[in-house]
Amino acid sequence: MTVPSASRRDRKKAATRQAIADAALQLFLERSYDQVSIRDIADAADVSTATVFKHFSGKEALVFDQDEDRESQLIAAVRQRPSGQNILDALRQHVLDTWPAIGAHPQAAEFTNLVNSTPALRAYAERMWTRYTDSLSAAIADEFGVDHDNLACVALARFVLEIPVLARDRKDRRAAVEALFDILTHGWEPPNKPPAL
Q1: Which of 23, 33, 60, 71 could be 44's S-S partner, Cβ–Cβ 3.0 to 4.6 Å?
Q2: CB of 101 within 8 A of CB of 173?
Q3: Cα separation of 44 and 27, whole Å?
Q4: Where along the chain do the CATH 1.10.357.10 domains lie?
Q5: Which residues of 141-163 are buried (b: 16+ CB within 10 A; e: fewer)?
Q6: Within a 13 Å sphere around the CA of 179, how many CA atoms are in the beta-carbon half?
Q7: What pLDDT does 165 receive?
Q8: Where in the chain is CATH 1.10.10.60?
Q9: pLDDT at position 63 over 70
Q10: Ramachandran bin of 46, using left for φ above 0, alpha for ψ from -120 to 50, beta for the remaining angles
């Protein structure tokens, strides 16, 4: 079965949405988040302010323009994993397939600094992360037929979502992701103390 390609109208909408998000991020990085208005973004993207609001719920959403797609992909990693693949392996593969490209993006450090230095964006990111945790833990719980507030499922979701943050500043990010998933899979063990010389 073939997947129908997006219509011309859908492609145009997606391109407009991306142009708005790109213009917003560029302005935020150049001037700082608080010094940029929706009008500035609309002008830079050559659209009306109404068009901006047609695609984004507010100014913070412009920074996290791929939020909904990332959440959907995270849930799909659990719910649509291949038959016989366990949840941890599916999530490991998802993180390895998606996160290194994000972490290696040339603007990743600037983006992280923008979010960390802007209270409104930090708060938005925390709400987004909480929603991701709730969605992922619910998907995991559904797979096991337990309540959505099951502590083991919530803890696993939270730990998995923290892996990119913990691996971000490591020299070999991929190896760090693998090591962190190994801890989740096999349990934590005390590190080996180097032999005394």
Answers
A1: 23
A2: no
A3: 8
A4: 66-186
A5: beeeeeeeebeebbebbebbbeb
A6: 10
A7: 86
A8: 8-59
A9: yes
A10: left
Q: Which residue has the tokens 């002008």?
A: 43
CATH 1.10.10.60, domain 66-186, yes or no: no
CATH, range 8-59: 1.10.10.60
Per-residue model confidence as pLDDT tens digits over 120-171 = 999 999 999 899 999 999 999 999 999 999 999 999 999 999 998 898 888 8
pTM, 2 dp = 0.80
pLDDT in tens, 102-114: 766 777 788 888 9
List the structure tokens of 109: 């450090």
Write the CA distances from 49 to 12, 38, 41, 52, 62, integer angstroms. 17, 7, 8, 5, 13
Residue 28 DSSP SS3? helix
Among 33, 17, 109, 106, residue whose Cα is nearest residue 67: 17
What are the helix and strand counts (H, E) for the chain?
A: 10, 0
- Please write the tens of the pLDDT for every residue from 41-55: 999 999 999 999 999
